[in-house]
Amino acid sequence: MKWPSTIFFLLLLGIESICNTASAESLLDARQGFTTTLAKKEVDGAPVSDPPKNVLQSVKYNSPVGDLAAYTTPSPQDGKRHPAIIWIFGGLSNSINETAWASATPENDQSASAFRDAGIIMMYPSLRGGNRNPGFHESFYGEVNDILSALDYLEKKEYVDPKRIYLGGHSTGGTLALLVAESTDRFRSIFSFGPVSDVRAYGADALVFDITKKKEFELRAPVKWLNAISKPTFVFEGTDKPSNIAAFYILLKASTNPLIHFYSIRGKNHFSTLAPITKVIAAKILLDDGPSSNIQFTQEELEGGSSFQKATQDQAIQVDPKLALAYSNRGFPTTSKRITRRQ
Q1: Would you list the domain boundaries of the chain?
Q2: Which residues partner with 140 through β-bridges?
Q3: Mean pLDDT score of the chain, rounded to an integer?
Q4: How does strand 121-125 pair with strand 160-170?
């Protein structure tokens, strides 16, 4: 995807009209009565890799389109209820694979294994059209409902504390995490790494819906529904390239919701933020056992060799939403995008 065509695409569709019309209505309420129109019917088709025994197990969870694949932590068999997190991978495939357990360097560890290492139950759901699942990719629409179905599944596990289930995601997974936070109050806290403010940033070729319809974009735009978020939500992004830092500042500039907290990370990029920050979050989750979430972060807790800063509105004022959003995102497809078409 070339930058000039991406910028033209964004300007043609009028990015400011979405950025400047934030709504307090929940995203699910806004979607009532609307049916998305898919211009392309795409699926991944990759088989689900077998995870290492005693680390993760392959399961199926029921969603509106049928049974979808997922990896989950096996029961600890200790008779206790544990905190849990649903983690959404980046990329455009909607699939799960060995990224969940493969060895990786701290510069690009997308496994989020810090949660698992801390004893937190994990669930990595694939979504519609991913792997060999039923349904088609919907580019951030029906996938929201799939994640809510994964929550239904996890809440029923006898070894999971249903009041201590968190949501996290990276890149496109971070974008989905925000859309889910705008749709429900059932997660205790949400952690979004490197999301976009508007899915048009991923480019026309990456989107499967009718891109001529403004409503299709509005119902997928995290920036429009920030006021609907009702649980503590934390947004992280590195300032070094590659990065979605401009989209980060667009979200910050648009937000008037005190429950959303923004942290820019100097010296880290879109990928190297994950390893150090997920470790800090995991430690916070273990201590977060009160009637409501009390998670907060300080600069000292987040430092870990880099300079972390809670971003302020003043930093966002200088960002031109048209050009910044075009600059900030190329989709970063961090898992395989092996796409096939179903007739």
Answers
A1: 3-341
A2: none
A3: 88
A4: unpaired
Q: How many CB atoms are closer than 10 A to CB 123?
A: 25
CA 90 to each of CA 51, 163, 308: distance values in angstroms, whole numbers, following the listed order: 19, 26, 22
CA pair distance 181, 31, nearest whole angstrom: 15
- Tens of pLDDT, residue by residue over 190-213, are 999 999 999 999 999 999 999 999
Number of Cβ within 10 Å of residue 230's Cβ equals 15
Burial 50-88 (b: 16+ CB within 10 A, else e): ebeeeebeebebebebeebbbbbbeeeeeeeebbbbbbb
- Name the token pair of 198: 């508007």
pTM for this model (two decimals): 0.89
- Give the right CATH number for 3-341 from 3.30.390.50, 3.20.20.70, 3.40.50.300, 3.40.50.1820: 3.40.50.1820
Alpha-carbon distance of 164 to 180, in angstroms, equals 16
Pairing mode, strands 121-125 and 66-72:
antiparallel
Q: What is the mean pLDDT of residues 22-47?
A: 93
Instruction: Please name the helix (run of DSSP H) or strand (run of DSSP E) that holds residue 57, with its range, or none.
Output: strand 57-63
Place of tokens 């990029």: 269
Q: How far apart are CA 307 and CA 265, in angstroms?
A: 6
Q: Which helix (H) or strand (E) holds 163?
A: strand 160-170
My answer on whether omega of the bond before 242 falls inside 30° of 0, hence cis, is: yes
List C-alpha distances in Å: 281 to 110, 118, 166, 174, 284: 15, 10, 11, 15, 5
Nearest CA to 270 out of 215, 328, 315 is that of 328
> pLDDT tens-digit profile of 165-183?
999 999 999 999 999 999 9
Q: How many CB atoms lie within 10 A of CB 314?
A: 9
CA distance 165 to 186: 8
